[in-house]
Amino acid sequence: MATDSSLQTGAGMAVAPHAEAFDQLLCVDVHDETHDVKSFTFLSSDGKAFDFEAGQHLSLELEIDGLPESRCYSMSSSPARRKAITVTVKRTEGGRVSNWLHDNLVAGMTVKAMGPLGAFVRPATAPAKLALLSGGSGITPLMSIVRDIADSAQQAADVVFVHAARTPRDLVFRDELGVLANRLKGLRLILLPEQVTGEPSWPGLTGRLSKAFLSLAIPDLAERVIMCCGPAPFMQAVRSFSAELGSPAQNYYEESFDGAGVEEPPAEVLPQARAFKVEFAKQSRTIEVADGQTVLSSAKKAGIRLPSSCANGLCGTCKSKLVSGSVDMQHNGGIRQREVEAGFFLPCCSKPLSDLVIDR
Ligand SMILES: Cc1cc2nc3c(=O)[nH]c(=O)nc-3n(C[C@H](O)[C@H](O)[C@H](O)COP(=O)(O)OP(=O)(O)OC[C@H]3O[C@@H](n4cnc5c(N)ncnc54)[C@H](O)[C@@H]3O)c2cc1C
Ligand code: FES
Hints:
By secondary structure, this protein is an alpha/beta fold. The protein contains seven helices and 18 strands. Strands 4-3-6-1-2-5 form a six-stranded antiparallel sheet, with helices on one face. The two termini are 19 Å apart. The relative contact order is 0.14. The structure holds flavin-adenine dinucleotide (FAD) and FE2/S2 (inorganic) cluster.
């Protein structure tokens, strides 16, 4: 099995290798941010200080009903406050891990985590001017950046923060953002609910992010480094509107929570591809995966139930046991060498080299 781990993302930033620095985390606080979003704060169980960059995430390694599950969560806390770390999780309908966290994780419990991971951080050589754009729970890495700017008294920072959500009650960190915007001279905050259900006296604009909105809200967008995180359609809109408004592609960075937009081209564009048989043993399903396609993308198309998150070999969510066969795996740090040696692989970044049987 090829285990070469590429250290470069599409955005051209270095990816942190799969560090194990976080290990066991002791949950010390849980609180509601909105009706379906909770923040969980942890201390390191061995008393160590945390070292990460604003925008990075960790991978929670849980066992739920006897099955291993790992999911990524961005730190929402400031890296300048090193004694504790906070992740902020939205309850996903039907989701295994987010619902388990909301319903079961309480102060006093210990969970396993790996990290810090990821490269969605402020580019080291970036100009001070930033445009942060988040949709829904995509605010978490950007909140960490703003909290970091506040904590480290970066007075020269010039930040426009646009935070969009379905309704005002879905605006995560709304009150704290207001306080920060009053305190930080260089922070301009624009909250954009799509509808004002429950709060008809909303004082600002409402609706979906549009090109006209972006050009009015951030007239100097083309001069800013843009960092965007949110649902796929939100990021797609920001990406294309900012390009149309003259922002250079190299100034645009995004973080996907669901791996949208990073899958390889469909099989149709690979003429006369060979195909391998891939069996999902527990589901008693066998599919064909065309040469050059990843196991995950073909499984998804065939409606096979397979957990996934980054779809980029980074988070470890899709980690599965390979019972037989071999794959070409090009991961980005989402699996450790000893797991590979134990027969695990990441279907999102693995292309079959033979017929496969997978323990899923
Ligand atoms: C880098 C990164 C950072 C992230 N940061 C955050 C963060 O800060 N906060 C946050 O809330 N989330 C974050 N996420 C997302 C997070 O990792 C999880 O993906 C999210 O919490 C959902 O996980 P889950 O286990 O609850 O849902 P899953 O069990 O993975 O299910 C996801 C959805 O898919 C459906 N589903 C699953 N399989 C099938 C199937 N076969 N057919 C039909 N439907 C199916 C489920 O019903 C559910 O709606 C991040 C992701 C990444 C990659
Ligand atoms: S889905 Fe993230 S490593 Fe496969």
